[in-house]
Amino acid sequence: MDKLLIRGGRALTGQVTLSGAKNAALPELCAALLTADPVTLLNMPKLRDVTTMLALIRHMGVEVNHPQDGSVLLCASDLNNPEAPYELVKTMRASVLALGPLLARFGVARVSLPGGCAIGSRPVDQHIKGLAAMGAEIVVEHGDMVARLSAGRSRLVGARIATDMVTVTGTENFLMAAALADGETILENAAQEPEIHDLAEMLIQMGANIEGHGTSRIRIVGVEKLHGCTHHIVADRIEAGTFLCAVAATGGDVLVRHGRMEHMEAVVEKLRDAGVTITAVEGGIRVQSKGAATLKAQSFRTTEYPGFPTDMQAQYMALNCVAQGTSKVTETIFENRFMHVNELVRLGAHIQIDGKIALVEGVQQLSGATVMATDLRASASLVIAALVADGQTQVDRIYHLDRGYDQMETKLGALGANIERVHS
Ligand code: UD1
């Protein structure tokens, strides 16, 4: 298993280019299931989750061409196996995104139920409820969700779907299903993430009729058929936020190329309140910091977009660990998303957890140690902490990091970090 060796204490300077967003790439790969025509996705990030999703759709019979230039060419004209098996689903919960498109185009799907996940139980009840409202019958058999159209139907039908909570992949499943359903679908309480907007734009390019994406109410009028398209995947705002936190902590001056301020206002606001200088410049976002010791720790609470993203909680907490003062970090989206805390404590952080709240007391210096990555964003928080810790930190189990960050160590190395991947 690969590990990272990081020697802290260096400021970060220069330019870093963001990759395409993982959370847009995954649904957009599934959107290719909606048409028999070729689909080209540009700006595909090199991630383990992307490799898993490609394996999944290949398994279904999708023809995949993945040249080295960041494009992926897909053709689902001969799909013969509308199934997502457990071996693939268990490593990536986003496999559930195949359910909506398969049902919409083929009227059948068999998708393994995602098992327990490190950051919480993460059920899929809302996906099932919404697709059932559109005329699907979904039963659980041998650990799989087995879905088909209810008797007498040849297509899904439009429906009004109001989910009990805001769900990102749920909204995406409904968008894709509704694009080919008969009639109008209204999604109330829809997720508003930029990745949803990007997916909807791709579907519109394919011929879908969608309005209101990017708001909490989306209207879709189904069409008979969708056609192929070429779509450029939006830049990864979570990768951007991770670099902003890293530079804030280490000090330095970095241009985050392709970063879009409007996608990350909640994080930018907290960083500015802390004392970091962040400016929108041509081509991206510039971040300047004199280092964590000059920054004021910030309390925050994770909420759905446009609030503070749960996917940035761990990275910002790493910054709070070395900033001035005490902060309160409240996680409201996932019930078990503080697994980085024990590892940060191993590096000398002062954190106490009380249910959904972590109380962080800033310390002057962290000290390098061996730590273990426990999930994707937790890994990134350990990397940030290691970049400011005294001495060497070894981050084990970085396969979690590779799920969602495209060559993070290469990008940080180019900014001046002392970081090395060790294969073992
Ligand atoms: C997506 C993102 C993930 C991010 C999360 C929240 C992708 C591939 N992943 O995950 O990076 O952390 O949004 O921003 O885009 N819930 C239910 N029942 C359901 C669906 C969700 O109870 O059927 C709950 C979840 O357990 C969680 C909350 O709703 O507490 C939000 O989850 P959701 O938005 O669905 O997360 P994902 O789409 O899995």
Morphology call: elongated
Mean pLDDT metric: 95
Helix content: 25-40%
The N- to C-terminal Cα distance equals: 5 Å
Structural class of the secondary structure composition?
alpha/beta
Q: What is the CA-atom radius of gyration, in angstroms?
A: 21 Å
What ligands are attached or bound here? Answer: uridine-diphosphate-N-acetylglucosamine
Q: Approximately what portion of the residues adopt beta-strand conformation?
A: 25-35%
Main pleated-sheet profile: 4 strands, mixed
Tell me how many strands there are: 24
Tell me the strand order in the biggest sheet.
Answer: 22-23-1-24
Describe what this molecule looks like in 3D:
The protein is α/β, with parallel strands linked by helices. Helix content is 32%, strand content 25%. The chain is built from 14 helices and 24 strands. The protein has helices at 22-31, 48-60, 86-89, 99-106, 125-133, 168-179, 194-205, 237-250, 265-274, 313-322, 340-346, 376-388, 399-404, 408-414; strands at 3-7, 12-17, 38-42, 63-65, 72-75, 83-84, 108-112, 136-141, 144-149, 160-162, 184-188, 209-211, 218-221, 229-232, 252-257, 277-281, 284-289, 300-301, 326-330, 350-354, 357-361, 370-372, 392-396, 418-422. The chain has a 4-stranded mixed beta sheet with strand order 22-23-1-24, with helices on one face. A hairpin with a 6-residue loop joins strand 4 (63-65) and strand 5 (72-75). The longest helix has 14 residues, at 237-250. It is elongated and about 70 Å long. The mean pLDDT is 95. Bound molecules: uridine-diphosphate-N-acetylglucosamine. Uridine-diphosphate-N-acetylglucosamine (UD1) binds at residues 23, 26, 93-94, 120, 122-127, 165, 167-170, 310-311, 333-334. Uridine-diphosphate-N-acetylglucosamine (UD1) is lined by residues 23, 26, 93-94, 120, 122-127, 165, 167-170, 310-311, 333-334.
